[in-house]
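Aim 2 progress update. The chain analyzed this quarter is reproduced below.
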Amino acid sequence: MPEEEVPVLIVGGSLVGLTTAMLLGHHGVASLSVERHAGTAIHPRAGHFQLRAMELLRQLGLENRVREKSLETYSPTGGIVAVESLAGRELATYVKELNEGVEGFSNTVRVFINQDVLEPILREKATELGANVVYRTEVTELVEDADGVTATLEDLETHRTRQVRAQYVVAADGNRSPTRQRLNIAMEGYGELSRSITIYFKADCAPLLKDRNQGVLYVHNPKLRGFFRLDRTGKTGFLVINSVGEDVTKPEAINVSDGLTDERVHDFLTTAIGTDEIPAEVLHVAHWRAEANVAARMQAGRIFLAGDAAHVVPPNGGYGGNTGVQDARNLAWKLAAVVKHEAGPELLDTYDEERRPLCRLTVDQAYTRYATRVVPERGTADAKPFVDDLTMEIGLVMRSRAVIADGSIPAGADHIPPAELRGQPGTRAPHVALGPDRSTLDLFGRELVLLSADNATNLPVRAHTIDAPGFTDAYGITERGAALVRPDGIVAWRSPGHFDAAELDGALATILAKH
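Predicted structure tokens:
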């Protein structure tokens, strides 16, 4: 017999696994998260967190802490530019300032924060909410049957094994996901883009930065292509290198990793800094493969793929961690609703329906940014048209039975410019200010809620009467209309002109797969 039973087993205890555990706890569902490494991330990765991720952290009471931690390391106004080297000319500006153009669309802001700083905050919150997170433990087998999944876990220190019985499994076990491989789920997309490296180092580069608005600094010169992330002191950070040599069309140009020597690492770092007069100490070199791929499916029965296990992108655009967080946000409330018998199990089928097309779009956009910003000489013919960052963050469209469309979105559209968002079903519910530091976005997160300008009573969901300028216009309804918003902040249904309880009951039955 299994030694332990748990509603949800999470394979992986990094950013996406911890977010999933935290959200399940927020919804009152226990989970066990197992991670093969000894603890949370030890290197700064996934440093750009977008509006939707920050809105989620705000709902969980973590926004202020995360922003404070961000300020310890990075400037809140960092931009994205291209330079010859830190000592050289500025070549291009991709983003003038991290939060340029977001005012009025959200009650929070984008931040730069390193994954090694963020993950302990998420772990603390997850355990506070009832999650169990264990390290140096690996899942060696998953056996599914009609009622659940039996997992065999191995303690990597003692090599003892035990079995755990779970109703559902979330695989957030990284881009080489053993779970995905066991399920024989293929990856589709652009394949391997480069064999890259990340050099973590210390060097006093502050005099070279001058008044440069430092956030992400792409480096383009005849010897290498990549980008810097430096902390606000300019004395420590990392350098990613994607290609080397003047002719980036050669196959060896994108194979930075193989045959690397310490001398070559120091030469790369000196070249990117632009002078040998600044002493540099290399702390660590990470070898990794840049890819742009998405899983052929994100669900196999009771097992779900999330994060890098489901989609892998190059770091250009900051989509990796953010997309995984949105996987967790979409899946956690659905798992909780099914586990607590508040929804039918068919609701879980909507995870793949909603997320995979948007993950494919994200992979395309990350590839477009890689192809045009890093190695345009290798060709950009297969790059999709550029979709702006704000649209990618808050303008995406979801389609499934958990969204009752009303014909307000053009057929086939997977994104809408934020200025055109009016609470259309399948889109992120708009931000409307309700007072000082209070927003409609603060009403979401735990349950389905109904928003209207009319005082509605005796309804099967929590209802909020909104008396705020611009509310009805923002949600595309009249004074007697209403909008139903899911826990993940997506508008599930709306009745623009007038609604009654029976209509709402029917919508809830459809959305929650209640027969």
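The chain has a mean pLDDT of 94. The CA atoms of residues 12 and 35 lie 5 Å apart. These observations will guide the mutagenesis experiments scheduled for the next reporting period.
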